[in-house]
Structure formats: structure tokens, C-alpha cells
């Protein structure tokens, strides 16, 4: 049942609370730890939902922590964008905003303590030797430096910090178990030398802690009770627990792993998303085709649609790929309730009502949202010259075509009058430039006075006298392949060349003249559209198709 939500993490926490022990009377405390090296994507939205949502459910706390222990590629631009996106999704960390790099000094001290306890040593295997000495599943690893005297390791570690050695010359390794079946436990490197500028620490450090050592300490120092992370860290949990057990930390967090979110027809790794941006395959991180939070926002996604999507996918250990169509389904569901209905003609052709007096005009009152009685109604104008969709006319109809064609069936202009098509005008190339029709003055509002059956379709239109110009952008999947990451193909080879179609000459109702982002509308018969939050301006409206009306998703 797709509407039943399941979250095994909550079962675990319920157990922890029931058992008492270290979790006796605790406030559930989680954290969301993004690395500020890119923009957040819909996969992160799942993690945000898991981290902040769990805290919310238990009346607990959730920290926002920039995981900036790796000095490369990190940037304030990302730090700010991450905060904006989380707030936009509707979550808040209060004053619990941290940088992992702020704990470098404490991490260093814990490492010194480990050395003093005989639980860490300075190793000088080169990366090549490291591979050679690593052993295989059945053979224990070796390190000739494992029994280096404590005093010597302490001295070398201090000098590593002082900058005496080049990159790669020494590492600090935890002394755990060289024969462990879990390679992460075979004396993992916990510090490496890296002479690099850090976006926050400047040049203060030239040794940096490894993730597996740093992360449990960050969690413990912040008093995290449940450290929720993705499945690739499952094999690292013994090391996480080892660090917590062997450093004298103020809290004992529990790591729980859940499956990453994957979505078809897109890629989700920041590295690949960055490549799309840097190679100008898309217009930026916020290109409406991107699975980033800022891209989805610009596409017209609502926080509620994304939260519903995350919730309804559930949280489990089973990796699965969710259909993009389900994300669209969640958006459609939300906008169906909230979006104002308007008329917009995307590929306009002029329609002239030949028996409607020239210079005359009138207004119709039309409802804003049939699903929301509170939404009220608005006035739209009508006159002799209108715009209709080019595809709503065919000079020679195909079988079952029920729209406009010469001497074709009576059609309804939505909310206005019944008309019959009488012919068209064409240019020298044979393109239709104008459609002619007559209207029934007795059908005001769209229904015939004598109750006769209307055989043609209902067609949307806008009044040429008051219409506003707009640019409309239609989007399709960014990739033609459902799994661009699969096999050994290059994901760039399956980019969809038709993922963006720009319609520069659309005509929209006069009432839309002043709209601004983040407004969303249902363009009748066309789909849901939002005002582009970057390129739209008064005098040059730009709309993005968020999602079409037709739901292809099947439960
Ligand atoms: P990427 O491979 O996209 O760079 P990452 O895990 O390196 O992802 P982080 O910035 O470290 O990116 O992610 C912050 C948090 O979000 C982590 O706890 C991570 O596990 C989680 N996360 C990242 N991608 C997903 C995903 N697709 N589904 C669920 N959680 C995710
Ligand atoms: Mg990460
Ligand atoms: Mg990453």
C-alpha cells in the first residue's frame, strides 16, 4: 500500500527507548551532515526527511553540520545554498549549526590520547606499499611500523601537524586488527598529511582526519543519539563504534544505516551533477531539469510535494530506484489542490469570429479552481479576435478529430461561446495564419439555449486584444536511458537532446501580466506551470512546465 509509510529507524529508536540503558530518558538527537561541495539534491531531501523528520517525530533535536573535514572543493556558496534549501523544505536547525572543522583541535587531542594508549601509530608506508601490505581476505595485513614506540609516534605526529613533512610521507593509523575480515578494521588511516588551504581553517592545518575517525567524534561531541546515514557506511560501523569506545567522548551515539534514494532517468552523484554544470550540458545547478533541490524549486516543485514523496517512499535497508513519475505524481497531487486554473495558448494561431461585431468586447467570470471553492473566480475578456492552440485546428481532419476544421462539429470555447469553424487563411508556404469561425450568440457561458448536444471538443483560448506575451519552457527527462549510471556506459552519452523545448510566442490571460515566482498555475489542458524564478520579469514572462496533466504513474 503506497500510502502506508514505513520507517524501520523509528522501530529501532522505539526499541532503544523501551530498553533504557544509555538511551534512558534521552532526547532523540540527530544531525544532517552535508559536505559543502555541491548543491543538495532529491537524495539529500530523503536524508533531511530522515534526520529532521525523526527528530520532529520524537520531539527531539537535529543539528545541521557542514562536513568540511576534507579541504578540497568546499565553498561558502554551497554552505549558503544548503541552508536555503533546507529552510525551503520546511526544516530548521535553530542555533545548532556546526562545522566539523571546528572540532579539529579536539580530534587532534583524541588522536594523541589514542597514541598514548597504544591504539594508534605513525606509519610510513607509501600508498603503493600500503596496497601491497594490505593482504587479502584470508591473509592478514602487515605494517612494519605497527610496533613503533609510543614516544616516537607522538613526536612524529606532532611534527606532522607542525608541517615538517610533505604530503603522503606519514599517516596516523588506528591499531585495531590486521587480520580482520573487515578491511576497514585493518589498522585504518585516521590522519593524512595534506598541505591545502581550508575554506574555514585557512592554513592552520596540514593534517586532516579521515571521515571514519572524524564522524563519530563529531557526533559524540554534539551529543547525537542516533547517527543516521546511508548503507555504504554499514561496513564502517565497527570502526565508528571502535572510535566511540576508545576515545573518552561525552556521548555514545548509535549509527543506523538506511538505503539511498535513487530515481530513474537521472543521476544523483554530486560529481556527475557538477560535470553537467561545468560542461554546460545544463544552465546551472538550478536548471529545472536537474534533480537538485534548487532545480526542482525552479521547476515548480513545492516543499510539500517533496516531503510527501519522501514520506511515501518509506525508509528501509533495501536499495531501490523510485520512478521519476512518482515524484511527478506527488507534485500533481499537490498542485491539483492549490494551483489556480488559467488559460494560456502555447503555440498560438489567430481565430477570428466573423459574426462577432468588430470593436465589441465582453467579460466572462470563470472559476479559479474547481477543487477549491474558496479560490473564487476571475474576469476574462472576450472579443472578435482570439488565440487558440495551433493543434486545435486541422484543415483536413484525421479520423476521430473533434476539434476545429472547416464545416466540422460545433466546439465550445471554454467558459464563453459555441463556435463552428468555417475556414482558414494560409501564407505562401501553406502555413495556417488565421482560422475563421462563427459563434452562436445564444450560447453565452458555453451552453446552447436549445439544449442541443455539442459534438466537438472544449477548447481553451485567450482574447487577442488583452493577451500577454510569454515564453514557455517545456521539459522532458534529462536522460533517454532509465539508468544512465548502469553498466560501463558514459552517462553523458544518454543525455536527451530534446529535454528542453522553448516556445517563445505563447499568449496568456491578461491577469498573468504581473505574476512573480513562486506562483504556479494550471494552464487548462496543458499542465502545471510556474513562473521561472530567474529569467521571468515584468514585460518578459517566462513559465516552466512543472508537470503535465496526464499521470503515467501506476501504483
Ligand atoms: P554524493 O555522492 O551525491 O556526493 P554524499 O553522500 O557524498 O553524496 P553528502 O553531502 O555527504 O553527499 O550527503 C549528506 C548526507 O546526505 C549524507 O548523510 C548522505 O548519506 C545523504 N545522502 C546523500 N545522497 C543520498 C541519497 N541519494 N539518498 C539518501 N541520502 C543521501
Ligand atoms: Mg558524504
Ligand atoms: Mg560525495
Automatic annotation (TrEMBL):
Please list the reactions this protein catalyses.
Answer: tRNA(Gln) + L-glutamine + ATP = L-glutaminyl-tRNA(Gln) + AMP + diphosphate
Q: Which InterPro entries match?
A: Gln-tRNA-synth, Gln/Glu-tRNA_Ligase, Gln_tRNA_ligase_bac, Glu/Gln-tRNA-synth, Glu/Gln-tRNA-synth_Ib_cat-dom, Glu/Gln-tRNA-synth_Ib_codon-bd, Rbsml_bL25/Gln-tRNA_synth_N, Ribosomal_bL25/Gln-tRNA_synth
Can you give the residue ranges of the Glutamyl/glutaminyl-tRNA synthetase class Ib catalytic domain? 28-336
The tRNA synthetases class I (E and Q) anti-codon binding domain covers 458-532
Query: GO MF annotations for this entry?
Result: ligase activity
**Keywords in UniProt for this one?**
Aminoacyl-tRNA synthetase, ATP-binding, Cytoplasm, Ligase, Nucleotide-binding, Protein biosynthesis
Instruction: Give the binding site residues for ATP.
Output: 35-37, 41-47, 230, 260-261, 268-270
SUPFAM superfamilies, sorted: Nucleotidylyl transferase (SSF52374), Ribosomal protein L25-like (SSF50715)
Localization of this protein? Cytoplasm
Enzyme Commission designation: 6.1.1.18
Binding residues annotated for L-glutamine, in chain numbering: 67, 211
Predominant place of localization:
cytoplasm
EC main group: ligase
Q: Give start-end ranges for motif 'KMSKS' region.
A: 267-271
Positions occupied by motif 'HIGH' region:
34-44
Q: Which NCBIfam families match?
A: glnS, PRK14703.1
Q: How does it assemble?
A: Monomer.
Family the UniProt entry places it in: Belongs to the class-I aminoacyl-tRNA synthetase family.
Under the heading PANTHER family, the entry gives:
GLUTAMATE--TRNA LIGASE, GLUTAMINE-TRNA LIGASE
Q: What is this protein called?
A: Glutamine--tRNA ligase
> What gene name is given for the protein in this entry?
glnS
Amino acid at each position: 500500500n503506497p500510502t502506508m509509510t514505513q520507517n524501520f529507524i523509528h522501530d529501532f529508536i522505539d526499541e532503544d527507548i523501551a530498553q533504557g540503558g544509555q538511551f534512558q530518558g534521552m532526547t532523540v538527537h540527530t544531525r544532517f551532515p552535508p559536505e559543502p561541495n555541491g548543491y543538495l539534491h532529491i537524495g539529500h531531501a530523503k536524508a533531511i526527511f530522515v534526520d529532521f523528520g525523526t527528530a520532529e517525530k520524537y520531539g527531539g533535536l537535529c543539528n545541521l553540520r557542514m562536513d568540511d573535514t576534507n579541504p578540497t572543493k568546499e565553498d561558502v556558496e554551497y554552505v549558503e545554498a544548503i541552508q536555503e534549501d533546507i529552510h525551503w523544505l520546511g526544516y530548521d536547525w535553530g542555533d545548532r549549526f556546526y562545522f566539523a572543522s571546528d572540532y579539529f583541535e579536539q580530534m587532534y587531542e583524541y588522536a594523541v590520547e589514542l597514541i598514548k594508549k597504544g591504539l594508534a601509530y605513525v606509519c610510513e608506508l607509501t600508498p603503493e606499499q600500503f596496497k601491497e601490505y594490505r593482504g587479502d581476505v584470508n591473509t592478514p595485513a602487515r605494517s612494519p611500523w605497527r610496533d613503533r614506540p609510543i614516544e616516537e609516534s607522538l613526536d612524529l605526529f606532532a611534527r606532522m601537524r607542525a608541517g615538517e613533512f610533505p604530503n603522503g610521507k606519514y599517516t596516523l593509523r588506528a591499531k585495531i586488527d590486521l587480520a580482520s575480515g573487515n578491511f576497514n578494521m585493518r589498522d585504518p588511516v585516521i590522519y593524512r598529511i595534506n598541505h591545502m588551504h581550508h575554506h574555514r581553517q585557512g592554513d592552520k592545518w596540514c593534517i586532516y582526519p579521515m571521515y571514519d575517525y572524524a564522524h563519530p567524534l563529531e557526533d559524540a561531541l554534539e551529543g547525537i543519539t542516533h547517527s543516521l546515514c546511508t548503507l555504504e557506511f554499514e561496513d564502517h560501523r565497527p570502526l565508528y563504534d571502535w572510535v566511540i569506545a576508545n576515545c573518552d567522548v561525552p556521548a555514545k551515539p548509535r549509527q543506523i544505516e538506511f538505503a539511498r534514494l535513487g530515481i530513474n532517468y537521472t543521476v544523483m552523484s554530486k560529481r556527475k551533477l557538477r560535470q553537467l554544470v561545468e560542461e554546460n550540458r545544463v544552465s546551472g545547478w538550478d536548471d529545472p531539469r536537474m534533480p537538485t533541490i534548487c532545480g526542482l524549486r525552479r521547476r515548480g516543485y513545492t516543499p510539500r510535494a517533496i516531503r510527501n514523496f519522501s514520506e511515501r517512499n518509506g525508509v528501509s535497508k533495501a536499495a531501490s530506484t523510485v520512478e521519476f513519475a512518482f515524484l511527478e505524481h506527488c507534485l500533481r497531487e499537490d498542485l491539483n489542490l492549490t494551483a489556480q486554473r488559467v488559460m494560456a495558448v502555447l503555440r498560438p494561431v489567430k481565430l477570428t469570429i466573423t459574426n462577432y461585431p468588430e470593436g465589441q468586447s465582453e467579460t466572462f467570470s470563470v472559476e479559479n479552481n474547481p477543487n477549491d471553492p474558496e479560490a473564487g473566480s476571475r474576469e476574462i475578456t472576450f472579443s472578435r479576435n482570439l488565440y487558440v492552440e495551433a493543434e486545435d485546428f486541422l484543415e483536413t481532419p484525421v479520423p476521430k478529430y473533434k476539434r476545429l476544421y472547416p464545416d466540422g462539429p460545433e466546439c465550445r470555447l471554454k467558459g464563453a461561446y459555441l463556435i463552428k469553424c468555417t475556414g482558414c487563411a494560409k501564407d505562401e508556404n501553406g502555413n495556417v495564419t488565421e482560422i475563421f469561425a462563427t459563434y452562436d450568440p445564444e450560447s453565452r457561458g458555453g451552453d446552447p439555449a436549445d439544449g442541443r448536444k455539442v459534438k466537438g471538443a472544449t477548447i481553451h483560448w485567450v482574447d487577442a486584444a488583452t493577451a500577454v506575451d510569454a515564453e514557455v519552457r517545456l521539459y522532458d527527462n534529462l536522460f533517454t536511458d532509465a539508468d544512465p549510471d548502469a553498466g560501463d556506459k558514459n552517462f553523458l552519452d544518454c543525455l536527451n537532446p530534446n529535454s528542453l523545448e522553448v516556445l517563445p510566442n505563447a499568449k496568456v490571460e491578461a491577469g498573468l501580466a504581473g505574476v512573480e515566482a513562486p506562483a504556479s498555475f494550471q494552464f487548462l489542458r496543458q499542465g502545471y506551470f510556474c513562473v521561472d524564478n530567474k529569467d521571468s520579469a515584468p514585460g518578459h514572462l517566462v513559465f516552466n512546465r512543472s508537470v503535465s496533466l496526464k499521470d503515467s504513474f501506476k501504483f
